[in-house]
From TrEMBL:
Residues 74-285 form the Dienelactone hydrolase domain. This is Dienelactone hydrolase domain-containing protein. GO terms for molecular function: hydrolase activity.
Length: 288
C-alpha cells in the first residue's frame, strides 16, 4: 500500500476485524480467570467490623514500656532477668485497633515467661473503634506494602540484638502477617486467633508447600470472618503438614475473643484464657 494514500475501506475493515478478535480473546481470557477463581472457591476472609469486637480495657496497670526499634514504636515487656531466655522472643501482631484498645495481653505473655514485643506497624494510625473511617478507606493506607516493612525492620533489629528464635502471635489483622511470616519461613513458630484478610485455601496451600514453621490457629464459633467452614477447609488442607499444625475451635464466642472478653461472661473469659494457654504452650513447645 502506498504510504501517501489513505487506507482503503477494505484495509480499515481488516483492522476493525482484528481489533474485535483481540478484544474478544482478551475478554475470554479475563472471564476464564474469573471462572477459574470461582471454581477454585477462593475466599478472602473479611475484616470484622467494630461492632463484632468487645472493647474492654483492663484495669491492670501496664508493666512494660515503649521504645523505638528500627524507627518503629514498640511496646516491650520482659520477665525478670534470669527468668527467661534472652535468645527467644514473642512478637505480638496486633489487630487493627492498635495499642491500648483492649486488654493488655502483651503483659500476659511476659508474665508467662516470654520477652514480648508489640510493634506498631500502623505507625500511629490504628482503625478508630467508633468506625468513623470507612473500612476500605483505612485499608488503602494500611496495605501489606505499607505495613510489612516496619514489621520486618523490627524483626531484623531483634535478631541484631541477639534474639535467635522469634515466635509470632497474630490477632485478627495480625493473623495475615503471622501467615505471611510462616509462608516465608521468617519466624520459628506461629500462632494466631480469628485471622482476617487471608485467602482460603490459597494462603495455606502456600504454607503447606513451602513452610517449615509450626502453625496454630484459634477460631470462634460465631466468627463471621474466619468462619467454622473456612476453618474446617483449612484443617483438611493442612492434614499431614510435617512441621506441625493445630486448630482449636472455641464454642460460644465470636470474632476478637482472644483479644478481649467481657468479664461478666464466663464463656468468653474461658475462651480468652484458654486460647492464650494453647497459644503460649504451642510457642514454648516449638522453640528449639
Amino acid at each position: 500500500m502506498d504510504a501517501d494514500k489513505p487506507p482503503s475501506q477494505a484495509f480499515r475493515r481488516t483492522l476493525q476485524d482484528l481489533s474485535h478478535r483481540m478484544l474478544s480473546t482478551l475478554t475470554s481470557f479475563l472471564l476464564s480467570a474469573l471462572v477459574f477463581n470461582v471454581v477454585r472457591g477462593t475466599v478472602i476472609v473479611p475484616q470484622a467490623p467494630p461492632s463484632d469486637h468487645i472493647f474492654h480495657t483492663s484495669s491492670d496497670v501496664p508493666t512494660g514500656r515503649n521504645a523505638t526499634i528500627a524507627g518503629v514504636n514498640t511496646y516491650i515487656n520482659t520477665p525478670p532477668e534470669g527468668a527467661f531466655d534472652p535468645t527467644r522472643a514473642v512478637v505480638i501482631l496486633m489487630d487493627i485497633f492498635g495499642f491500648g484498645s483492649t486488654d493488655n495481653f502483651t503483659d500476659t505473655w511476659a508474665k508467662a515467661g516470654f520477652a514480648t514485643y508489640m510493634p506498631d506497624y500502623f505507625l500511629g494510625d490504628p482503625f478508630p473503634q467508633d468506625g468513623s473511617i470507612a473500612n476500605d478507606a483505612w485499608h488503602l493506607n494500611h496495605t501489606e506494602a505499607i505495613t510489612t516493612p516496619p514489621l520486618l525492620a523490627v524483626l531484623d533489629a531483634l535478631r541484631v540484638q541477639g534474639i535467635q528464635q522469634i515466635g509470632v502471635s497474630g490477632y485478627c489483622f495480625g493473623g495475615l502477617y503471622a501467615t505471611r511470616l510462616t509462608q516465608n519461613n521468617t519466624v520459628a513458630v506461629a500462632t494466631m486467633a480469628h485471622p482476617s484478610s487471608l485467602a482460603i485455601p490459597d494462603d495455606y496451600i502456600l504454607v503447606k508447600a513451602n513452610s517449615t514453621v509450626p502453625v496454630q490457629i484459634n477460631s470462634g464459633e460465631f466468627d463471621t470472618g474466619f468462619t467454622p467452614a473456612l476453618a474446617e477447609q483449612t484443617d483438611e488442607l493442612m492434614v499431614g503438614y510435617a512441621p506441625g499444625y493445630n486448630h482449636m475451635a472455641w464454642a460460644g464466642v465470636g470474632h476478637g475473643f482472644a483479644v478481649s472478653a467481657n468479664a461478666s461472661d464466663p464463656v468468653a473469659v474461658a475462651a480468652k484464657e484458654g486460647s492464650f494457654e494453647v497459644m503460649s504452650s504451642w510457642i514454648s513447645a516449638h522453640f528449639v
